[in-house]
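Contributing: when you submit paired examples, paste them exactly as shown. First protein:
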Amino acid sequence: MKLLPDNDSTPSGSATRAHSGSGDQRLSKTVSDLMRTPPIVISTSGSLVDAATRMRENEVGSVIVVAPEATETLDPIDKVAPSIAGIITERDLVRATSSGVNPATEAVSDWMTLDPHTVDQESEVIEAWRDLASHSYRHIPVVDAAGGLTGVVSMRDLFRVSALRPVEGQFADVPKGMEGVVAAETHTGTVNGELGFYQYRQYDAVELSRTRSFEEVAALMIDAELPSRDALSRFVADLNTARASVGEIKAASEETLRLGLHPDYSLSEDGVTPTSKLSEANQMARLRTAASKLGEAFLMKPTFDSSPVQRRRDCIRMISSLPAIAASNWRMSQGLDPVEPRDDLGFVANYAWMLIGSELPPAQAQALEKYMISTMDHGLNASTFTVRVVTSTGADLGAIVSAGIGALSGPLHGGAPSRVLEMLREIGDPDNAYRYIKKKIEDGERIMGFGHRIYKTLDPRSELMKEVALELGGSLVELAVEVESTVVQLLDELKPGRDLYTNVEFYSSVVMNLCGIPNPMLTPTFALSRCVGWSAHSLEQASDNRIIRPASRYIGPAALQPL
C-alpha cells in the first residue's frame, strides 16, 4: 500500500478548495473560505486500502468516515450532508500497517478516531486556529450549524492564514513555548503524544529500533528510504571513508581540551592530566566545540552556497566523525590514549570500542544500538527546531550541529541522564524507594526520569528501553523497576488523577550504564544519535528554505521622549 505525505495543495481530484471572492487568502475571514468541499469520505465498512486509495487519488491526507448508507461523494448543493462517524489520516494508516494487520481486509472503523473534533464553517479563522492548536490535530471536519459535514480544513490551512495576520497589524497569540504551533513542514518524522507513537519517515520508530541496524535507519533518515543491500554497503563505505583520520581526531581533541581547560585539569608537557572527574556539561561543551572544529577542518561551506550533494557529504562527515572525536575527548580527558576506529565493527559497536577501549559483548552492543536508533529523531523538539533555525540562515553544518548540541545540553531538553542514576544510587535499595519518593512528592521536588512535554501516555522509547533493560537484567534494573512502580503508586495515593510516566531518560540511563558508558558521556551519546536527525532536518530545511523569523510583541515601557 503506497501512502502519500500530507498534501494540502489544491487537489486534482473531486475535492476543491473554496476561496473568498477575491481569491486572496489574506482576505479569508471564516473557515468556509478555506475548507475543501465536498469532503472525501468513506463508509465505516471500507478497508484501509480503500482509504489509502482515496487519499492518493484526491491528494489529501485524511478521509472522513461516515455511515455505510451515506453517499461516498458529496455534492453540497444537491445532497444532505451525512453525520460523521470518525476520521482516518495517513498517520493512522502508518500506525495500522506497522502493527502487521492486512490493510486489504482491516476496516477503517477499527483505526479511525471516533467522534473527531469539528469546527463550525462560520468560525473566524484565527479563533478556529487558537482552538485547534491545543488539540494538535492536522485535519479537521467542518460542519454547518446543524452539525452536518460540509468540508475539511487542515491545520496547515489555518496556520498559513493566521500567520499572515501580523502583516496586517494583528498578531496571532500562541501559547508559551509555541506548544501546538506548526512551525515547519517535514517528511522526516512526527510524534503523536496522545497515542504514544512516533515515526521516522513512514515507519514506526520503535519497530525500526528492534529490527534494523543503526546504519540502515541513518540511511533512511538521510536518503528518505530504507536502503537495499547494495545501497547499505555504499552508505557504510561513505561513513567509513568520511570519518576523520586518527591524527585529525587526536589533534582536534587536544585543541578542544586546551581551549576550555577545566580548573580541575593540569597542563604539562605530557598533555592534559585529570585531577577529578568532568561532568556531562563539560563533555557536552567539548562536543559542541568539536562539531564547530569539524566544520572548519572539513572546510564545510555555508549551506546557502552548497549543492545538495555537498550538503549530504557534509552530513555524512559529521555523523561519522563526531563519535570518534567524542570518544577521543573522553579518553584524553582521563589521561588515556585515543583508540583507533575499526571498520569491521558496526557504527554503534565501533563507538563503544573507541570510548571504552574494549569490544562490547553482543547483548550490550545490541542494547546500545537500540537506544541510539530510538533517539535519532523526535519531532520538532527544541534542538531540532534550533537546527532548522540556524540552517535557515544558510550557516555551515559545523555551526548548525554545534547549535543543536547547545540546545540539547540543557537539563530541560536532553536532560542529564546521569541525574537518574544519581537518584537510583541515593535510593540504593528497593526497600528505601517508598520513603525516598514520598518525601520528594511531599516536598514538591521533581522526580528525575518522569514526565514528558508531549506524551500524555507511556513514552514508547521508555517502554522499549525498559524491555531492553529487563533483557540485560541485574540489581540496577530491579531497583529501577521498583522505583517506577513506587512513583505510580504514590502519585495515585497522594495526587489522584495526576498521571506521570517514565520518559526516555529513566531506563536509557540504566541501559547505557549496563553497557559501560561513563556517566559524563550519557548525554553526549544521546547527541551522537540525534546528530542523524539533525542532519536530516538540515537537509530538508536547506532544500526549500525560508529564513525563520517570527515576530515578538513588545511589552516594555513606552518609548521615551526625544532627548
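Second protein:
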Amino acid sequence: MNRIFNANETSMPATARGAHAIGLAEWLTRRAARVPLAPALTCDGVTWSYRELVARVESMSAVLAAGGVTPGACVGYLGLNDPMFVVVLFAAARLGAICVPLNFRLTGSELVFVIGDAGVHTLVVGEEHIEVIDSVRSQLACQRFIHRGVGAPGWESASALMAKPPSVPAAVAARPDDVAVIMYTSGTTGNPKGAMLTHGNFWANNLNEILLWDLVSTDVTLNFAPMFHVGGLLCGSMSTLVAGGHLVLQRGFEPGAVMRAIAQYHVSVTFGVPAMLLFMTQHPDFEQADLSSLRLVSVGGAPMPEPLLELFNARHIPVHQGYGMTESASMITFLSPDRAVDKLGSCGTTPLLTEVRLIDMNGEPITEPDARGEICVRGANIMAGYWKQPEATQACFTPDGWFKTGDVGYQDAEGFLYICDRLKDMVISGGENIYPAEVESILYGHPDIAEVAVIGAPDERWGERVVAVVAPKPGKTVTLAELQAFCDGKLARYKLPKELRLVETLPRNPTGKVLKSRLRAAPDAQA
C-alpha cells in the first residue's frame, strides 16, 4: 500500500528538518489569499492570477482524488515546461500525495524503470510525449493515464476533466517530513535513484533563496530550465511564488526567446547553467538585447568560466554563482557578484539554513584552510533519503548526519568554498591528483575553443593521462601542441593535456551537464 515516507523511517541519522515548515499547497493558498489578483504564472502569453492558479490546483486535486490518488500515492508528470506541471505539483501536495517529475529526454525503457520504481499511480503527460508512453504502456502498472490536452485515443483529457471536476476534497495537512516530490538523479552511472524531497526541504530552500536574493512580490522570474530538474523547479521558481512574485515559464531553452522574454516582461531574476549563458552570448542578438531589467542571474550546475563571467559583467548583468544538487533541494553555497572577482573560482559560502564541512579519506573533519576533502552538507534542505533504498541512504550520510556529496573541495581562510571536482572524475596521473575543472577553466580562455571537457584515459606509464575533448569555434581548429603551449606556465606540467579529441559539440544531459561517461566511451584521439 502506498503511504507517506517519513525521514525517520530511512536509515539516515536524525537531523533538523524545519519543524515550522509549511506544506507546498498550504503556502500557495495563503499567498493567493493575500494577493488574489496579482499575476502568478505566465506561459505562451497567457497569464493566471494567484486566484486562478489556486482554482486550477483545486480542480486538479478533485480529478486526482476521484481517480484514487490518496496520501502517499505517486503522481507522475512527463512533459516540457508547462503550467500543468505546476498545477499537478500543487494538486498532488494538496492531497498528501507525491509528485514525480519525469525527464522528458528519457527513452521508453528508461521511463519504464523510473515510473515502475516510483510506483506511479496516475501519470499526466504532455501531448508531445504520448507516443513514447503508448510504446511502453503495456509495461506500466499505472492506474490512470491523463494527457494535458484533448482528443488522444485511450487517454483521459485533463482539460475535459478539469472543466467539470468532482467536488473539491478537503486539503490534507502536510508534515515537514512528508515527502512532497521524488526527483530522480541523472543516472549517468547505473539506474537513477529517487531523492525524496520533503515539504520541509522545499520550505528551507525557499527561505534560503528569498533571504539571499531579496526576492519580493515585484520580482518577475523567468524559468527556461527543465522543471523535472531541481534547478528548474526550485531555483527561483518556487521561491518567487512564495514571495508573491510573477513566474514566467518557457517550455524550453532558446537563446533568442529568452532575451525577448526578458525585455517583454521586464524580468528581474532568472536561472541557468553556464552552457545556457554561453549560448546566449553566441547569439547574434546578445549585444543589442535589452537585458537592463535583470538584477540577478543565478548560475549553477557547473563552474562558471572566467571569460564567460567577463562577458556578462561587461553588460552590467550581476551573475550570482551557486553550488547545489538534487539531494540538497538545490542550494548549498552561493557567491554574490561583489565577491566574484576576488574569489574567482569559488562557489561561495552557505545560506542561512545550511552548513558545510569537509572530511578526509578517514571521515575526519578538516579544519585547516586550503586542505582538500569531500564536501559534506547539513541542513533543513537535505533530502530524507533515496526512495526505497535504505542502504544507499545510509551510505551517503555520515554517522552524525552530514550528507556526503561526492565532490572534492577546500575552504579558504574566510570560509569560501572551492570545488575541485567530482571524486569519480578526478584523474590520477603518476600518483598526482588532477582535477579536470581546474584544467577546463584554463582551456576556456583559449580564443578558438567553444566548449571543452577534460577526462582521464588509461596510460601504461602514468596510470592515467589528461585528455582534452574540445569543440572549436566555427571555422577554427586547435592542435595538441597549441593547447600545451597555451597552458604552459598556467598549469603544472603534469596537468597538461597529453591527448586531444576534437568534436563538434559536447554531449550534455537536459540540465547542461557534460556527460563525461559518454566521452570516456569514445576514445578517438587526435594529436
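If you have annotations for the second protein, write them as plain sentences, like these:
The first helix runs from residue 24 to 34.
Residues 1-19 have pLDDT under 50 and may be disordered.
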